[in-house]
Amino acid sequence: MKKISAFAVFAAAVLIIFSSCGKEEKTLKSDAISFEEIVLNENGYYNGSDGSGGFTSGNAKFKNSYNTEWESWSGFAVSNHTDTITPNYNNQYSSIVGSGAGSSQKYAVLYSFTADTIEFVTPAKITNIAITNSTYAYHTLKNGNEIAKKFGGETGNDPDYFHLYISVVDDKGTELAFDDPIPLADYTYSDNSQDYIVKEWIYYNLSAAGTIKYLIFRFDSSDKSAWGINTPTYVCIDNLVSEWEE
After folding, report:
1. Which of 143, 132, 85, 125 is closest to 109 using CA atoms?
2. What is the tally of structural domains in the chain?
3. Which residues make Cβ contacts (< 8 Å) with residue 72, sequence separation at least 6?
4. Structural domain boundaries, residue 104
């Protein structure tokens, strides 16, 4: 798998289009996905319980899977939940911010076992994606629960981390991985006062990957068992902006 440079955080992508004699000038198209158009159920979320296997928003397809026997889901859901207090699985559809990015009403929630993918209908450069923790993950990281540990341990000195890794498949079918993960919690500092758990929307520019067909999301955590990651593998996503030429 090839590597590409680290994320440019809080950066705006500038695309300069050159036209040359004898060539048709291309038009720059853009798409901003905010999930506001997605219809939610009476409980304020959509998780694929209709058996559709996912949903499309703007230029992207988001997959999910619903188990009717267990009434459980994985992949991408959309929610308008605002509960930043309830710390357990019953509150799995809330962002720790209590809203979408920029105080919007709706946002996506990713719950992943191994890897989950966003597919772009038209391959594009990703100039923005907003990411934050879910309320469930945030409080588990902060306090622990019956399965997962409190980050830092009892002394606060345990060098714990919770990371989201993003890789892409470009328009030629090559998988590329970013050098650095997105830290959702970082307790690896020698000075414990610098340890943190993300609790705001953070904006990332992924255009260094070039024109891509797929975004792939994977989690990693210092808290693992023989069955895998103990930390709840949830993250919230919003304001996904892509650009391409036609």
Report:
1. 132
2. 1
3. 66
4. 2-11+28-143+164-183+198-245
